[in-house]
Amino acid sequence: MLKSLWVTSYLAIIPMLLGGIIFYFLPTFHWNYQLFHVLLEGGGALIAFTLALFVTTMIKQQRLAINYIWLIACFISMGILDLAHSQTPPGQAFVWLHSSATLIGGFFAALIWLPERISKKFAHKEFLLILTIICIGFSIWSIVYPEMSLAMLDEHKKFTLSAAFFNLVGGIGFIVAWGYFALKYHQQHHPDSFYFSNHFCLFGLAGLLFETSILWDGNWWLWHSLRAFAYFLLALHFAQMYWNDLEGLKQKTNALKQEKERFEILFEKSSYGIVLIEDGIFIDCNEQAFHMMGYDNKQALLKHSGDLSPPYQPNGDLSSEKANEMILQCLQKGSNKFEWMHRKKNGDDFWVDVLLTKLNYQKKQIIHTVWRDISKEKEAEKVKD
């Protein structure tokens, strides 16, 4: 299990260690660059919205379990609050919005442990819509009434204990989610669990580092960078999955195209007559079929297909009821095979061995008909008798 914790977290721990070493040698590092902060937090928020969309799609496709609904809630709430945080100047609302985002995001992330029967009760769009409205309203309220904030900056540009507490609790929530995905990867070795594990490990470390930082110092930039890297990891993972899906779809499309080309070759060059029938009307046929029926080309046969005489019984009696019965049996059983006598355009009769097969195409029932001319065999039987 300890090995799995390392394997599912090394992408998170390595940058953490490197960053710690760098800032150990730069103890007085201080960089007041608000634009870069906007890019980090605002960009992370936009990625969070994208991740929420990806996870939603994968739940609908049943590629992720229903309890991943809590990750959608995590990404939506953090995305909205962090986006509002990135657009506010340093001050009370600035710290309050970020600390609230960490607290709420960590809370929802930890709920991933809940069993599916409980998570299923919240897996609907109304829950996510209400959450979105609450987060937007909360952001506006925080900006309009910053004096109501609990997580604040003191007069020395340091974070208050309440701000540290919010981030500490949120960080613990992310650590709890990290444990879930680390355990899941230990059991299943699925890449989804690997990347989620590293993502929440980074978010947990960032939340715990908050208490050790002050505004614009080295540690402050370190945990911001860790969060940005966490978003980048998940975005890269889902982008790769999306690319693989596109490549798989492209391969399937090419395979279907090749299969269609092979079918068209067999369809047109077959020595058997092939006719496609829908609602009793010929909708397509191959070259051999219209030759057998005595027509000059496919268009001539299809043009008169609605007026074609139905097959004749061996005694020469016209039997549209019998023809309909054979088609009905094909629709019920999936296929039907029999011998019948047809009449050509010029009135000559000919015997065919008929194979009917039902095809379902675009919610339509198509009858695939194969004719094999057995007129010579029937003549030979007469002579023999």
Descriptive report:
There is one protein chain. With 385 residues, this protein is of the alpha+beta class. 63% of the residues lie in helices and 11% in strands. The chain is built from 14 helices and 5 strands. Strands 2-1-5-4-3 form a 5-stranded antiparallel beta sheet, with helices on both faces. Strand 4 and strand 5 form a beta hairpin. Helix 2 (10-24) runs parallel beside helix 9 (191-209), helix 3 (34-60) runs parallel beside helix 10 and helix 4 runs antiparallel to helix 5. The protein is rod-shaped and about 115 Å long. The termini are far apart.
Measured between the Cα atoms of the first and last residue, the distance is 84 Å
Lateral strand order in the biggest sheet: 2-1-5-4-3
Q: Helix share of residues?
A: 55-70%
Helical stretch count?
Answer: 14
Largest pleated sheet: 5 strands, antiparallel
The stretches of 5 or more residues where confidence is low (pLDDT under 50) are none
Which whole number gives the mean pLDDT?
85
Tally of DSSP β-strands? 5
Going by helix content, strand content and strand pairing, the class is alpha+beta
Gyration radius, to the nearest Å?
Answer: 35 Å
Shape: rod-shaped
Which series of helices and strands comes N to C? HHHHHHHHHHEEHHHEEEH
